[in-house]
């Protein structure tokens, strides 16, 4: 079977990373979490208290984002440091959404992402994979779910980590991020014309993967 590129886009807290990891494992492909790359840069800017676009752009040559395997799981590194846990906070996620609006930041990471897909056999998830990074990807999926369902998922994740979030605050974060992602001037989140929409609001994890495996198997 010829290898393909699978581009997975969609709203925050739709389970894109979980789905992409499962599909990559099923297909024997490489998985790339582009959102984690933006989160890593966001974390760098928080640590160095960089807020102005010019400051962030000037810092890009000093930022090295990579991936390592830890006990079989993919972790993100920032200048050689494993920052997987630090980038998964609400603060880092919101900062990633903010810095992703900077054209130069997107160009910096898109170039790296495109290089990763030269030999195909890759599953990549994010906000602009099927529209900007890989517009010619053979399989494009666009994930969606209601804001309330996504907020509940995010709330449950934070509780599982021992945090004590406020649901209304989490819901506001979700809707605010949706607005930023869909209204930014540079590469806004949108459904590619040839993408397959998967609304997993009322699907179990097994049900959604059965649907997605079915779409992938069309290429066998």
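Q: What amino acid sequence fits the structure above?
A:
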């Amino acid at each position: 079977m010829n290898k393909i590129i699978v581009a997975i886009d969609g709203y925050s807290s739709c389970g894109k990373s979980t789905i992409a990891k499962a599909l990559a494992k099923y297909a024997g492909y490489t998985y790339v979490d582009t959102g984690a790359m933006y989160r890593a840069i966001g974390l760098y800017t928080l640590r160095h208290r960089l807020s102005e676009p010019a400051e962030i752009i000037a810092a890009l040559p000093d930022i090295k984002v990579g991936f390592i395997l830890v006990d079989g799981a993919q972790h993100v590194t920032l200048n050689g440091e494993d920052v997987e846990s630090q980038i998964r906070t609400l603060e880092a996620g919101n900062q990633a959404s903010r810095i992703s609006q900077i054209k130069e930041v997107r160009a910096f990471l898109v170039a790296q992402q495109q290089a990763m897909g030269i030999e195909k056999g890759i599953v990549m998830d994010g906000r602009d994979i099927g529209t900007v990074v890989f517009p010619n990807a053979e399989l494009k999926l666009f994930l969606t779910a209601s804001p309330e369902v996504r907020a509940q998922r995010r709330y449950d994740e934070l509780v599982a980590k021992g945090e004590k979030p406020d649901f209304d605050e989490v819901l506001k974060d979700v809707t605010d991020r949706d607005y930023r992602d869909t209204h930014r001037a540079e590469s806004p989140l949108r459904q590619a014309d040839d993408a397959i929409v998967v609304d997993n609001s009322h699907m179990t994890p097994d049900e959604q993967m059965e649907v997605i495996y079915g779409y992938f198997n069309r290429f066998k």
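Q: And what stands out in the fold?
A: The longest helix spans residues 167-183.
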